[in-house]
Amino acid sequence: MNKALSIALLLLSCYGVAMSQDTPSRYVRLAELEIEPAQMDAFVAATREVGQASVRSEDGCIALYAVVEKDNPARVRVFEIYRDATAYEAHVQTAHFRTFRTTTDSMVRTRKLIDANPVSLATKPGVVP
Amino acid sequence: MNKALSIALLLLSCYGVAMSQDTPSRYVRLAELEIEPAQMDAFVAATREVGQASVRSEDGCIALYAVVEKDNPARVRVFEIYRDATAYEAHVQTAHFRTFRTTTDSMVRTRKLIDANPVSLATKPGVVP
Known about the structure:
about 35% strand; alpha+beta; homodimer; Alpha-Beta Plaits
């Protein structure tokens, strides 16, 4: 192997390390939902259920976070992390996700999806992602 | 210990397990930032740096996620998880956070903070949170 090629491979490997630290290949889904206020408790219960089922049973579902805005308790913000796009495609085919959608569709007034690319997914070392 | 007390303690301990699964005591911070387009690369670099420094050196900083909207590459959305409010207060006093703010303040056009309460923070088992 000549010197130029060695340097090129070294640079590529360093780049690979930097990339994996920030896991930019992860597939992230964001959503903003407005929930029927009278249905909020039921929506919260269904969200916790689908979240736990997803991270437990799906290899590629890394995190499913949902929070409610303090200033507007009918507004829920969702932040989901999947290993890659294929893992997300598998997620929406699962029985627990389909049940969640069927159960909650009538509880959701509006739903805005935000497609996003990871910039940094820093998590405590030893923790995925 | 009488039977009623035993049952009460058992119920309390089950409730504790259920609570910890959904970690509602975690302190979550959300933000939406608009970045000067010419400064985006520098902002991304600074964000990765403060993210890695925070999760490595702060006991209570669990995750610091930043993503950029695909439809509006100047808009960054931030989702941070701390052990509790005290851990967040400690975070903003650290040298790496202060450096980040000083370095990036001129790069940020607008900054919207959204206070939120966790509904579900489901993460793959064995993983914090």
